[in-house]
Specification:
This protein is mainly alpha-helical and about 325 residues long. It is built from eleven helices and two strands. It comes from Anopheles merus (Mosquito).
């Protein structure tokens, strides 16, 4: 490396290096504000640095050319095997299909659209760790809940989180699209098919984010319900003696089952009320559904419910 720079600095006579064109210097000087040109000495120093950098770049290019030309003499020629020849022939045969698929991907996929990128970044930086049920708040109480108090607290948390999503997440997405329209980042409404595909891709993205939130919230809530004696301090029951030989529980065990499982339904419902974003931007644009179709993920949800039934300590009579 030292020898390389020695060749550049001292191996080439500057007589053979043409100076920088005066017209180029004049264009550079015209970019300097007039109020700064009164500093003559710094200006001369800058011009000297420009000339020196230009001379160095030319000499470096000469050295690179000479060394590169010398290395090509000893470069090993690439061996052309029968397999490579076959691939070369097939490449021509597949080219039309490749071009066709590439054009189709560009028409239908919008994974690198600036609006999609901003929506992903918004979710990952602000809402990814959000849950509809604040388990930490439930744990912080440190004592058993009354069933009515518990359901009221959890449903209030779900509603507050839904409002936060509606105002901050959905509102921020609307702002992103309003700016995207001004910057022409969204397909023109004169191409309805392209616009429809674009909004379908965004609906899929937003739906996926809400589904992940829903599943994470259900899993966190289920873990809290099943973790009796540790994070969950249990529930208060009133035991009554009836007819001298019959015990009754208030609330009843079936009532516990109904209320606890109803919260899961409320979690799912809370993420199914968001409109597709094009309904806010292009109200007259036809779309297959008014709202984002957040699916329940029946298999995973079924596993969660099965875990709850098997782990929850109350026996349903």
């Amino acid at each position: 490396m030292l020898r390389y720079y020695h060749y550049i600095r001292h191996g080439i006579d500057t007589v053979h290096v043409s100076p920088i064109d005066k017209r180029v210097l004049q264009r550079i000087l015209r970019l300097i504000p007039k109020n700064l040109t009164r500093w003559k000495q710094p200006l001369r120093d800058i011009i000297g640095e420009i000339k020196e950098d230009y001379s160095f770049a030319v000499r470096k290019a000469v050295v690179d050319f000479v060394l590169g030309d010398a290395m090509t003499k000893y470069a090993r020629k690439e061996e052309i095997t029968p397999g490579r020849l076959e691939i070369k022939e097939l490449r021509l045969k597949w080219k039309h299909r490749y071009d066709e698929n590439q054009a189709k991907i560009k028409r239908n996929l919008f994974s690198i659209n600036a609006c999609s990128e901003q929506i992903l970044e918004l979710w990952d930086t602000t809402f990814k760790k959000m849950l509809l049920v604040n388990v930490q708040e439930l744990v912080a109480k440190g004592e058993a809940y009354d069933l009515t108090e518990f359901t009221s607290t959890v449903n209030q948390q779900i509603e507050e989180t839904r409002l936060t999503l509606s105002e901050k997440w959905y509102g921020a997405i609307k702002t992103i699209f309003q700016k995207g329209i001004k910057k022409k980042l969204i397909p023109d409404d004169s191409k309805p098919k392209m616009l429809k595909k674009f909004f379908n891709s965004l609906a899929t993205l937003m739906t996926r984010q809400l589904q992940n939130l829903c599943i994470s919230s259900i899993e966190s809530y289920t873990h809290y319900i099943c973790d009796v004696g540790r994070s969950n301090q249990g529930f208060r029951l009133t035991i009554l003696l009836e007819n001298q030989d019959t015990l009754s529980f208030i609330p009843s065990f079936p009532r516990f089952q109904i209320e606890i499982l109803k919260i899961i339904d409320n979690i799912v419902k809370s993420v199914k009320s968001f409109q597709r974003i094009e309904r806010q931007i292009y109200p007259d644009l036809p779309c297959p559904h008014e709202t984002l179709r957040v699916r329940r993920y029946y298999i995973r949800l079924g596993l969660v419910l099965a875990q709850m039934h098997s782990s929850f300590p109350l026996k349903i009579a």
